[in-house]
Amino acid sequence: MAFLLRRLAFYLAAFLVAATINFFLPRLMPGDPIQIMFASAGSELSLENLNALKLTFGFIDAPLHEQYFAYLKSVFTGDLGRSIKYFPLPVTELLGRALIWTVGLMGIATVISFTLGSFLGIFAAWRRGRAVDSVISLGAIFSSSVPAVVVSLIMLFIFGYTLRWFPNGYAANPLIDPAWNWQYISSVLYHGTLPMLTLVFVLTGGFAVTMRNNMINLLGEDYIVMARAKGLSDNNVMLWYAARNALLPTVSSLAIAIGTILGGSLVTEVVFNYPGLGNTLYQAIIARDYPVIQGQLLIMTAAMLVSNFVVDLSYVLLDPRLKKA
Amino acid sequence: MSQLLQNKKAMTGLVILTIILLVAIFAPLLTEYSPVKRVGRPHQPPSWDHWLGTTRLGHDVFARLVYGARVSLAVGFGAGLMITIIGTVLGIIAGYKGGVVDEVINFFTNMVLVVPNLPLLLVLAAFIGQASPLVIAIILGLTSWAWGVRVTRSETLSIRQRDFVKSAEMLGEPSWRIMLFEIFPNLISIVGINFIGSVIFAVITEATLEFLGLGDPNTVSWGIMLYNAQNAAALSVGAWWDLLSPCFALAFLGLGLALINFAIDEIANPRLRTGGMLNRWTRMVRIGEGKL
Amino acid sequence: MSDPILALDNVSKVFGRADKPVYAARAVSFALYPGRTLALVGESGSGKTTAARLIMREYTPDEGRLMFRGAPLGKADSKALRDYRSSLQMVFQDPFSSLNPTHTIRYHLERPLKLHQRGLTAAQRQAAIVELLERVKLDPKLIMPKFPHELSGGQRQRISIARALAVNPQVIVADEPTSMLDVSVRQGILNLLNDMKAELKLALLYITHDIATARYVADDIMVMYAGQIVEWGAVDKVLDDPRHPYTRLLLSAVPDPDRRFDDIRFADELGRIEEIRQQAALAQPEVSQVGENHFFRPMPA
Amino acid sequence: QDASGNVLTLVSEQTTTFVRNFNPFGQTSARYTTLDFMYEPLVVFNRLKANEPNFRLAESYELADDLKSITFVLREGLMWSDGESLDADDVIFTYDYITKFPALDFISVSALLESVEKVDDRTVTFHLKEPNSLIANTIVGMPIVPEHVWADVADPVTFANENPVGSGPMTEITRFTPQVYEQCRNPHYWDAENLKVDCLRMPQLADNPQVLSALAEGTLDWATSFIPDIDNTFVAKDPEHHHYWFTPSSLVSLQMSMTTPDENNRKAFTDVNFRRALSQLIDRQTIVDIAGYGYPLVNDDPAALGELYASFANPEVDAQFGQYGQFDLEAGIAALDAAGYVDADGDGFRDNPDGTPITIDFMVPNGWTDWIDAVQISIESLSEAGLNVKMSTPEAAVWTQNLIDGTYSMTLNALASAANPYFPYIRSFNPNDFGKSRFTAPHWENAELSDLLAQYTQTKDADEAKALMDQAQLIVAENLPIVPIYNSPAFYQYNTSRFTGWADAENPKYSPVVSNANPARLLQLLDLDPVAAE
Amino acid sequence: MTTPVLSVRNLNIDYVGSEADFHAVKNVSFDIAPGEFFGLAGESGCGKSTIAFAVSRLHRPPALIRTGSEILVGGRNVLDLSDEELRKFRWREVAMVFQSAMNSLNPVLTIETQFYDVLRAHGPISRADARARATELLKLVDIAPERLDSYPHQCSGGMRQRIVIAICLALNPKLLIMDEPTTALDVVVQREILQRIDVLRKKLGFAVLFITHDLGLMVQVSDRIGIMLEGELVEVNDAQTIYRRPQHAYTKKLWASMPKLRGEQTRVEASS
Ligand SMILES: Nc1ncnc2c1ncn2[C@@H]1O[C@H](COP(=O)(O)OP(=O)(O)OP(=O)(O)O)[C@@H](O)[C@H]1O
Ligand SMILES: Nc1ncnc2c1ncn2[C@@H]1O[C@H](COP(=O)(O)OP(=O)(O)OP(=O)(O)O)[C@@H](O)[C@H]1O
Ligand SMILES: [Mg+2]
Ligand SMILES: [Mg+2]
């Protein structure tokens, strides 16, 4: 419990620091953020017009610390301002829309690749040095070394353009109304296949390598040998004893990997035009939609923190040694 | 090092890396074309004149590819070096000094680890604008050291417990010397893994940032090639060579580096090693010389 | 007996939280004399290493003080401290971790010489290294360029001793220096330590859980339990006539090929392990003298 | 086709998500089908036919002889889509409103107006601060909104106007999701008999490739999108129904700052001989072919008007200065040599006649790839001629600021098309706008030209106006303050399988581009006829 | 003479290397009679554990048991067993305490589960029955049944050691292999455990293969002792004979280098 509380405190501090960075980032960059923001919005507005607009967007000419506290207050009350590009949509709502897709895409891809990678890793470690091991290891090395952008482009080329098996973008057929019916869901699945495959391809290798290494380290442990000596079946030892324990360090590596996953999903979303957070961020950056960029970073950080916390939690659940500590 | 040369994976990786390195160095000898001049009509498919075809602008893809290797390698190794140096120095200091120093470094490390890296880089690059490879390398170096600190620190923590560190302390070695000469040499493989890993990361991230349009279009690099190809809708118009050439180059480089990384890991951790003995073992079992 | 070079005076060290304190050292007092070996025995976790670390000043005592050459060792006085540090060396338990695998043996011996005998020329240093290696009975030519992993455990432990000697210390603390070595090699190291002690008039603190080797090397012995020294005195006296129940328990548990299990069955003490442990863990401030140079802390009845 | 009637599917904006915002004053945030389709203009001027007026809400307008006022007369019986009547009060209200909330005035029209006066229920007179013969063009750009709705809106800038009450043909939102929305017939539309389309459907498409694939599949009827290699990627998929027609639009020109901070560069840039040589070194055709996929139209008119304003062209310009608009590497090099721009210090680059070095930073916004390509192609020939030119690609915002301040060295700049060449000239060369607008980026001023332009707005006489414009063109062409390169195309793709009546190259009745910068799209909508269902 | 529980014949084990093999066990043969306490001694790395592992066939590549070796347990050659037979054979006939028994309990499973595992693997048994049996077994080693719900890290080292022994006895094996079971424990606990084993052995009748390098202890507890040197079994004899009249030079040297707790203290010279 103390462990979790400590982590929680850290995450809170981390969030505060992230929010602070977020606040200062645009203000530290060369040029007046407001100027940049509206200049790139591309309109040919007069200065009067501009000033009037600034006020409506809540750019107060207060001293920095007042701006800062106003900002913090709004962040903690869940108010991230309004998008400029999609005015007057609140940033939270815009991100909320995108979040669903990213969480779906990333979540499922992570689960699949984590499971698949872990199984492959377990299997490779168990049959270390045999052909399976070599194939899995080499495959894993390859998959983890190829940039997500390259994989998505190649996927798009092969399955989207050459074979035309899958659509080249978007989360679902725009002409179908979102609803809980098969037509819509199948469209979502159909559209999600390529980005999903890409992410799974990119992520699986890393998990497999981690799992394999952990497993190999573990297989030398006495309790594994003892389990075998006890006459437990190989599958039992492999899955119930070794894998379960090897999962612990893998899970903690998952916490770090979440950042990478987020990055990978960002490019994938951009390439496949998937309407998730990554794509939203990309579009916001192109349009210099400041409130969205800031909100986005904050949400992504929060997402990282939450998933780290979930990992911590599952760590505690998986490892009885931590329960009391 | 000699172990590295005996490892098949490492050899393959080194060969790949060497090929790319040679290509980068001898780029002018490998192609008659300039990477920044129009030398053909737009989007000519691969031919004798243009081995990998031409880009939308009529640049020779092969020429851009070989010259682009320079940037990818330079950014990769430059940023990788920076990331590694920062990570190693902070990691060793945090792990060895402990106390408040450790708390502070550790806090910032964890902090940086929980801020999503690529989005942050994206925002930084966007704010900076026209991020040349050098700028990209620098921001990569400044934002991506956390993982290195973490592994170096935890390894330092365990090495610090080893008695040779204690005896060095007892001999009155100054702490910088302990960190540099007693601890650091024992971290070589970790640092090596961190370095190669950072290089992979830097290569990938540079390409990604450039692909997303945050690079400097004057650059001849694989990321910019991707960006240009994507902008020219290379796939829609069927100019696959424009897009796939840098794709495969990046995959090739990534593979080479990953193989080296994997091999270092195997060498550092003998348990992970497979090597020839398992092949021999399998053969011996098969011919009935013994069993388990 | 001459004056002690180093003494612990009522030193205590407590770990853990206030509500659950772990007394790693409880009012520990002892003294080291030049040319004498003091053995510290006790079961695992009894506080032996803590005592060593207190001496090494890795831990600062919560109570009590360290006396060096008869004067208490303060914090501020750095001259005395440096003096103290350079007259003290340690030989570690694990020969595998006490040498840096990335440096040659030569480097290991050169560093202390460079640090502590700054005036030496390269040639003089070379000579000093050769002398050190010869002293620990290793062939300098063969050994110097090697890396630790090319040596056997016994050889490594000799290098550790040579390195300790390079500083010209007056006190050597050896924390279980042979427990990781093979039986046949142990003896050599013990003999070496004994010889060094005699030749160089070293004060030696020998920490072990193996009473037999303690008997072999030490002049005096202390038995420690739960952070407290429960019995101490000249080695023969303590071992021949153990007074403290824990000492007896320890002695009866020591493997002894002359006595089959069947013969001794459950010795008195072995039958009362838990009871003795519980009692011995309590603070026992009283000291009872058995004879000249033999003391113990009687347990409450 | 729907049971409810026929549906026209169009794409006028690319976005990753739709937000329900139909605030006609919200330039960047409102849906692109708000203007024209929901809020009908008073008049639509047809740029392709010398600004011929198509009267919409107004049935006529009259410019006073002193050019200091203009009077619009509304049609009879106009109604808002909720059935309330639309009259002069709404016009007056709208103009009061944008004065009260300056942020709404996205075309900065109130600055030109002295007052707005209600003459009767259908007649409104606008009193101008300065005489202006072109004021009608500006005034019709402001949408008229219903007083009975907007009077109660507390904060019209952030008001999303989710259920618009409008005056145009398509005002009813029948469906709205982030992925698609539909906008249907106004039940009280005055011109309903000309309107054959029942509904507009706007699917959400994020970028050009997506629009392309929707077009190629035939799901879109009307689009405005850049499509690479359009004949292959779009037309060839269904040559019978897939069509496009590109009309020349905004001018892209090479510009140099006459006030650039580097004094050596300034010496060269302010020398007309240098500018003329430079113009001859620009390979316009290659730029159009490669950077623009052949879609733009070369603009080699030294007076910078070109095809877009062909009806205003002064033939003298071509006769006297025509060669300065033509790519001719040799001639350009010779001209530089002749003017004394030779390599004086032996560094391989040409220097000023006085020996000071010229180092040009050719600035173009990051991410504007076609421009980047154009710049790269330009730099090739400029370098070949021995000029030291490097490209830089700062953020668009930084670029804009540099252009406004005149602190850049060389750049590409774009100027939107307009009804009359007066607009490009006044926008580019009005000294009052220096430091305010990026269109005055060259910071070049000419008193004679300013004078001519001032007179131009103050004459009602067509011949006099033409003489003034001819003279202005000669001045511009002689001085070559901007180096025209091409007019970028207005993209327009359409599909004839469901609707006919499209404007095209054979029948260029008006500009049919569906982007929200083209009010004439309303005319196109009204001309469409559904293909009878088989 | 009764048939031995374990009979090792010409055991040769190699660790296959990428070029050359390392002969870890060279032609070793010995027998253990039922109920016998057999000690195997020798220096670190001489191949003791390798033999112990081979008896339950626990080796993993690159270890290789050479053809021609025989390990007979209850008359069956362990090396000929099929996978399933081998699985059933393990623990039912030969149970094993490992070098670091502290670590041979799975840290993330409760003690009860670790009993249940083994019982279930060798025949159908309900959870409740398994628990009852486990309680019974723990009683043998003097551990309170509440411990069943604990995790290993909640028990002290000595306790864990005893739990492992209890698990070893779960199936009444004929042979218990103990590979340096007490090196990590201090002498008092070590003694306690060994005496307990000795008592249990006499009560339950299993034989023990006891591996250690502590010769003094070895002589105290064993009936017979084998001395190993670099993979070879150089001397096998009953404990007292080996102690008092060692034959092999190496054995003699081993004794000589052992300091004595009692009696005369002599300086012994030993090689380094
Ligand atoms: N740094 C520390 N923090 C907390 N507790 C400690 C620390 N160091 C030692 N202890 C505790 O103090 C007690 C004495 O430990 P110490 O290491 O001195 O024992 P030892 O006799 O050397 O044991 P061993 O024979 O296992 O080396 C133990 O209970 C130990 O857990
Ligand atoms: N996996 C392996 N690969 C190669 N050699 C090995 C392997 N395992 C053990 N060996 C070698 O085999 C020899 C015998 O090892 P084994 O573990 O049987 O020794 P041991 O007598 O049990 O030693 P200890 O007392 O240290 O446990 C050693 O020299 C060791 O180096
Ligand atoms: Mg200790
Ligand atoms: Mg062993």
From TrEMBL, chain A:
Residues 99-311 form the ABC transmembrane type-1 domain. This is ABC transporter permease. It is a multi-pass membrane protein. Keywords: Cell membrane, Membrane, Transmembrane, Transmembrane helix, Transport. It is found in: Cell membrane. GO terms for biological process: transmembrane transport. The keyword Ribonucleoprotein does not apply. The chain crosses the membrane at residues 7-25, 98-126, 138-161, 188-209, 246-267, 297-318. GO terms for cellular component: plasma membrane. It comes from Devosia sediminis. It comes from the Bacteria. Pfam families: BPD_transp_1 (PF00528), BPD_transp_1_N (PF19300). Belongs to the binding-protein-dependent transport system permease family. Coiled coil: none annotated.
TrEMBL record, chain B:
Its main location: membrane. It is found in: Cell membrane. CDD domains: TM_PBP2 (cd06261). Residues 69-261 form the ABC transmembrane type-1 domain. One of its GO terms (cellular component) is plasma membrane. The keyword Nucleus does not apply. The keyword Disulfide bond does not apply. It is a multi-pass membrane protein. The chain crosses the membrane at residues 12-31, 71-95, 107-128, 134-152, 183-204, 243-264. It comes from the Bacteria. GO terms for molecular function: dipeptide transmembrane transporter activity. Keywords: Cell membrane, Membrane, Peptide transport, Protein transport, Transmembrane, Transmembrane helix, Transport. One of its GO terms (biological process) is protein transport. PANTHER family: D,D-DIPEPTIDE TRANSPORT SYSTEM PERMEASE PROTEIN DDPC-RELATED, OLIGOPEPTIDE TRANSPORT SYSTEM PERMEASE PROTEIN APPC. Belongs to the binding-protein-dependent transport system permease family. This is ABC transporter permease. It comes from Devosia sediminis.
TrEMBL record, chain C:
The keyword Coiled coil does not apply. Keywords: ATP-binding, Nucleotide-binding, Transport. It is found in: Cell inner membrane. Transmembrane segments: none annotated. Residues 6-251 form the ABC transporter domain. It is a peripheral membrane protein. One of its GO terms (cellular component) is plasma membrane. GO terms for molecular function: ATP binding; ATP hydrolysis activity. Pfam families: ABC_tran, oligo_HPY. It comes from the Bacteria. PANTHER family: ABC TRANSPORTER, ATP-BINDING PROTEIN, TRANSPORT ATP-BINDING PROTEIN. Belongs to the ABC transporter superfamily. This is ABC transporter ATP-binding protein. It comes from Devosia sediminis. The lineage of its organism: Bacteria, Pseudomonadati, Pseudomonadota, Alphaproteobacteria, Hyphomicrobiales.
TrEMBL record, chain E:
Residues 8-255 form the ABC transporter domain. Keywords: ATP-binding, Cell inner membrane, Cell membrane, Membrane, Nucleotide-binding, Translocase, Transport. CDD domains: ABC_NikE_OppD_transporters. It is found in: Cell inner membrane. Belongs to the ABC transporter superfamily. GO terms for cellular component: plasma membrane. One of its GO terms (biological process) is transmembrane transport. PANTHER family: ATPASE AAA-TYPE CORE DOMAIN-CONTAINING PROTEIN, OLIGOPEPTIDE TRANSPORT ATP-BINDING PROTEIN APPD. It holds the Pfam family oligo_HPY. It is a peripheral membrane protein. One of its GO terms (molecular function) is ATP hydrolysis activity. This is ABC transporter ATP-binding protein. SUPFAM superfamilies: P-loop containing nucleoside triphosphate hydrolases. The keyword Hydrolase does not apply. InterPro entries: AAA+_ATPase (IPR003593), ABC_Ni/Peptide_Import (IPR050388), ABC_transporter-like_ATP-bd (IPR003439), ABC_transporter-like_CS (IPR017871), Oligopep_ABC_C (IPR013563), P-loop_NTPase (IPR027417).
